[in-house]
């Protein structure tokens, strides 16, 4: 068996020189193909002979004749070089039309309401053999579940990413007020007094009623009354249709709710902070053709969906 010291003497350049010599059986032609001078190729052949302890090629007239050892190792060397060539060859462009498999996206429920349907519809058109899987996710566990391979990327309000993740900005999500005008007989625009005095319904996965809205109201000297807290945005429309109350929600889902359930929307009567919605994905997937295509598809779909809903924001160019 060849020892480690011998293996270290044989590099890719020597194997490539051997392969070309096997094909050409002529030093001049082989050197020309390798863009080497004859002295350089001769030196490479000498090193390979020393490492393998065999002549490998014997001069016969103007050509070279391979030795039995050279003939025996040539197929394995050709296979190895072919494997290296296949490995480093540029990846073929991803073809969504012929691809079959799953695309997996992590989103919280307010963003699912705005984007999942249009994304699924567009994917069905472009990649009919694919299936879209939506995974319930939020900023607390997005990074961990991303590393576990639960989804291809997450769309949420993410924390500062780890060095092996990429966080791409999408849009700043503003807030909007939504209510049933038949229940809550108020006309837009709402005054700060009206906003503070009506009953409020909030959304909190953990059941917390206090939000940044309460902080903003306290700075104006007002306090609101929260009469109900639901864990998911999907519960809001029926709650608002059942009682005279108002909810302040992300604009993207608020406009969807208004269109689907006949609710009224208006701008909050005070300044509220906007949440930076971002896309989080693994750095190792940055250049992957399939993953890159899926991220690009989401950006296109989300951009159209935001514009169609009447949202005041658009997808950041930096996300591309």
TrEMBL record:
<dbReference type="InterPro" id="IPR005119">
    <property type="entry name" value="LysR_subst-bd"/>
</dbReference>
<dbReference type="InterPro" id="IPR036388">
    <property type="entry name" value="WH-like_DNA-bd_sf"/>
</dbReference>
<keyword id="KW-0804">Transcription</keyword>
<dbReference type="InterPro" id="IPR036390">
    <property type="entry name" value="WH_DNA-bd_sf"/>
</dbReference>
<comment type="similarity">
    <text>Belongs to the LysR transcriptional regulatory family.</text>
</comment>
<keyword id="KW-0010">Activator</keyword>
<dbReference type="Pfam" id="PF03466">
    <property type="entry name" value="LysR_substrate"/>
</dbReference>
<keyword id="KW-0238">DNA-binding</keyword>
<dbReference type="InterPro" id="IPR050389">
    <property type="entry name" value="LysR-type_TF"/>
</dbReference>
<dbReference type="Pfam" id="PF00126">
    <property type="entry name" value="HTH_1"/>
</dbReference>
<feature type="domain" description="HTH lysR-type">
    <location>
        <begin position="10"/>
        <end position="67"/>
    </location>
</feature>
<protein>
    <submittedName>
        <fullName>LysR family transcriptional regulator</fullName>
    </submittedName>
</protein>
<keyword id="KW-0805">Transcription regulation</keyword>
<keyword id="KW-0536">Nodulation</keyword>
<dbReference type="InterPro" id="IPR000847">
    <property type="entry name" value="LysR_HTH_N"/>
</dbReference>
